[in-house]
Amino acid sequence: MNTTILGYPRIGARRELKFATEDFWAGRADAGALARTGAELRADVWTGLRDAGLQAIPSNTFSFYDQVLDTSVLVDAVPDRYRHLAGFDRYFAMARGVQDVPPLEMTKWFDTNYHYIVPELGPDTRFRLADGSAAKPLVEYREAKALGIETRPVLVGPLTYLLLAKPAEDAPDGFRPLDLLDGLIDVYAEVLERLAGSGAGWVQLDEPALVADRGEEEIAALARAYSRLGRLTSRPRLMVATYFGTIGADALRALAGSRVEAVGLDFVAGPDNLDVLASVGGLPRKTLVAGVVDGRNVWRADQRRAKATCASLLGLVDQVVVSTSCSLLHVPIDLDAETSMDPEVRGRLAFARQKVAEVVAVGRALSEDVPAKAEAPAPPADVDHDVRARLDSLGDGAGRGDRAARFAAQRDELGLPALATTTIGSFPQTPEIRRARADLRAGRVTADAYTRAMRDEIARVIALQEDLGLDVLVHGEPERNDMVQYFAEQLDGYAATEHGWVQSYGSRYVRPPILHSDVARPRPMTVEWATYAQSLTSKPVKGMLTGPVTMLAWSFVRDDQPLADTARQLALALRDEIADLEAAGIRVIQVDEPALRELLPLRGADRPAYMEWAVGAFRLATSGVADTTQIHTHMCYSEFGEIIGAIGALDADVTSVEAARSHMELVADLRAAGYENGIGPGVYDIHSPRVPGADEIEENLRRALRAVDPGRLWVNPDCGLKTRAYPETEASLRNLVTAAHRVRADVTGTSA
């Protein structure tokens, strides 16, 4: 082989997987229909990659929800609370929960916006190879072979799987999932032997954990794992793939000393991999799978540079295979579907289908020793000199005033009780809301008619929240398609796609906008909606904005200037929006930064610089308000322990965070860090369809009170409610208010 990719989008060109999955969840389709859709999507990908001229095609990159969850099912790492279920019912219960059984924890896949379902392991976990359709690598390899297509099955590597897992709640102190390595390797050995028996020539084991800081014990575990797998007498050839950064020299030495036949390195996110490879003496008698086409961003590849990189590697390894830097799961499927995009922007882009063609072209140029295709130069990014001059004049941005003075001013201004109740921002996006938005895009309704429909929905949401008894209200965001795309469509420097869907988790897909030039805000973006909502109630209504770091993380961002510079441009636009909201009488403004942890560099040495500019961008956006204006922020689905200091440095008056799936573990981090501002640890998980009882929410609140003073504790769900339906939303929020009133009465003597 001389060309391959590490993975491909699984969702279908028309989002077939989303609709089939949601039909199954709603009872509109049975398990057989869902399975058939999956088989059709897999076949389409394999045949498409073959027809594109790709020489080595991966399989087992499809998933009905998440590849880490698939691995847990494959090795029977199923907690006992799900064992009464079977098939898809068990699988989706682990991902989403059911009424009486909460789901497994979910968090971000390294530094991406893809989410994985966290394995939950204990000392009593006994791995075994699953039977039947749950043995996905075997099933899908045979499916492809029946189509006449030889594939390379892909599995999450054993070390990465265990390093991503967490101890079960009842696991004894000192237990680590890595303690289970030998038992897991037994199952991986069985998988490899059975794949070899089915005719598989290669297997790919993904070990992205090797690009993060790893200690001696973890490197020793890596060496032990691949020594055992390499010594198997009956197995396919093994390719260990790393991506998202630079592999550690010790990890590469361990792989070089093992019997694996190929190693994959990412030369896009990890250009220093070339130096590391040279420092260990190369990989003699091994194949290097060189990730030279960017699998995470949408910019067209410089094919001449990619070929030159591959050519420079030939003296260090036996053979070079041209590949993507990581799975193409992270980019949209086909640029050809974007027929209305600005041609100048479109000319700079490549989506998954085009990236496969780039890999094939570079591989052909390398193997035939002919010049790589000379692409026409991309047009330069537009420069806004006014924006750059304003940023120069602002410098690093001042912080806000004294914390105690601010809290006193806000207490007098807002008059809120202890354990104040609120929601994160969005309310359910009903079919009627989505239809109105589609009608506006298609020209079937006027802008005035659309505005009236959205105002009607806002009035309904405000009335509902007053009936529920919430203390700080939101307008519900009916006018917003997505928390990043909505703002991107109103900012200069961004382009939107029509069909550029990317999976975030399960059936939740997003269309990341493309940030291609300098960012500027030509006009207010949210003021009209917020002030209308505030006119309907005497309670405070939050203005809702998406923060600069999240605008970066959930967009495809220009790569011709440092991220820090682009973040400051976004922060300036938000600073102007916040000033307009404050001038319009909005007293609470929430600037969401759910991606703050997501962009944290995987290497510890790179983190201080990131924290400095990320925190600086948030403070630049929010530091211009009066003490009486309360600034909130929100974060979700990340491991927060490593950024507790940064959360405090943001200096938001209130921070709401995901905490329900992790059983309020965050409170221990908060206690240890001495966090002093307001905190709203999410008391129930909105990504599950189950309705939490008031007792369950009360228990979570009492856990939080072990670390947070009642005057600083807020009560809220863990994320926005747009993906939920109104019946479960109303029931859950009534239970939330009931629980808050109970605890408030207990700690203050009054529920008011």
From TrEMBL:
Its EC number is 2.1.1.14. CDD domains: CIMS_C_terminal_like, CIMS_N_terminal_like. Residues 3-313 form the Cobalamin-independent methionine synthase MetE N-terminal domain. Pathway: Amino-acid biosynthesis; L-methionine biosynthesis via de novo pathway; L-methionine from L-homocysteine (MetE route): step 1/1. It comes from the Bacteria. Residues 419-741 form the Cobalamin-independent methionine synthase MetE C-terminal/archaeal domain. Keywords: Amino-acid biosynthesis, Metal-binding, Methionine biosynthesis, Methyltransferase, Repeat, Transferase, Zinc. Zn(2+) 1 binds at H634, C636, C719. Binds 1 zinc ion per subunit. Its cofactor is Zn(2+). Pfam families: Meth_synt_1 (PF08267), Meth_synt_2 (PF01717). One of its GO terms (molecular function) is zinc ion binding. Zn(2+) 2 binds at E658. It catalyses: 5-methyltetrahydropteroyltri-L-glutamate + L-homocysteine = tetrahydropteroyltri-L-glutamate + L-methionine. Belongs to the vitamin-B12 independent methionine synthase family. NCBIfam families: met_syn_B12ind, PRK05222.1. Catalyzes the transfer of a methyl group from 5-methyltetrahydrofolate to homocysteine resulting in methionine formation. PANTHER family: 5-METHYLTETRAHYDROPTEROYLTRIGLUTAMATE--HOMOCYSTEINE METHYLTRANSFERASE (PTHR30519). This is 5-methyltetrahydropteroyltriglutamate--homocysteine methyltransferase. It comes from Actinomadura soli. The lineage of its organism: Bacteria, Bacillati, Actinomycetota, Actinomycetes, Streptosporangiales.
